[in-house]
Amino acid sequence: MRVGKVEGKTGAVILAAGISGISKGTMLRQELDTLREAGISPIVVVTGHEEENVRKELAHRKVIFVENPDYRTTRMFRSIQLGLNALSGKCARTLIVNGDAPSFSVDTVLALAAADHELTFPMYGGKPGHPFCVDMDQLDRILSYDGERGIQGMMRKGLICAGLIEVEDPGIHMEAREDDSLAQIIRYQQESIMSCPIRPELKLSLARAKCFFDEDLAALLLEIDQCHSLNTACKNLNMAYSRSWKMFKKAEEMLGCPLITKQVGGARGGGSVLTEEGRAKLEAYQQLRREVLAFAEKAAERLF
What we know:
The chain is of the alpha/beta class. The chain starts with 9 loop residues before the first strand and ends with a helix. The chain contains eleven helices and twelve strands. The relative contact order is 0.11.
C-alpha cells in the first residue's frame, strides 16, 4: 500500500544515468546547490553510467541514490520512473532535473514548486525548458505507462495534462552537450552567482561535550522511516553501515532513549523502524533547524 501524499513538500529527481563525454561532477553539484537553496528535499540521483564515480562525487551531499542498471537500453523515462518511485509518499511534488542542464535559478525552482498543474514546465522567451515539475498524485499513472515517448507520449495521448509558467530565466534552455557548451554554462553561472543575495548556510549539530546529532543522522532517520531498513537506508545515502551504528550508539547514549528498533516479520518482513522517541527527536531537530535558519536569514539581511 502506497503512503499518502505529503502536503506541501517538494522533492527532486536528478537524472544522471545517461552516457556523457562531459564530467558530471560540476553540473550535479551546481544543481544540488540550487535545489538546496530553494529548500527542495528529499533529492534522488538516478545513476547508471560511471555509477561509482557519481556516488563518490556526491558522497556527502545527503542524496538518495537509485541505480538504473538498464540505462544503456532504456530511455530517460525509465530513470524518471525509478526516481519518482523512490519518492513515493515522501513529497507532494517532484522536480525532474536533467543532469546536463544545471543553469536554472532558485526563483524558477520556487515558481515550479508553487504551481498546481499535473505537469508544469517553465517557459522563457516563448519556449519551454527544464526542469519540470510532477504532481505526485500522478505517480501511479506515470509508473504504469509503458508506451512510446515517455512524458511527451503521455501528454499527446491525453493521459496527463501540462501547464506552462513564465520565468525570467534563460538558464532553463542551457544544456551541456559538448565542452564548449559546458564552458558557456560555467560563465553564465559565475555571472548569476554574483547577482544573488548573500545568505547564511547552516550545518546544525546538537552536542553535550561533543556532537551527537547532526544533519547526517537526521537524513538517516528520515530514510529509515521511508524504507524501514537500516541497511537499505545506508546504501541509499552512500553511508557505511558501521558508521551508522556508531552514530546511533552515541546519539542514544546522549539522549537517553532508543531512536530505532528492529522489526521482525510482519507484512514488510524484517527491518528497522523509528521508535516514538526517535520520531519525536527527529521532529524537534527539524523544527530547531527551521527556527535557527529563519533567525539567521533575518540577521544576514540586516548585517549584509
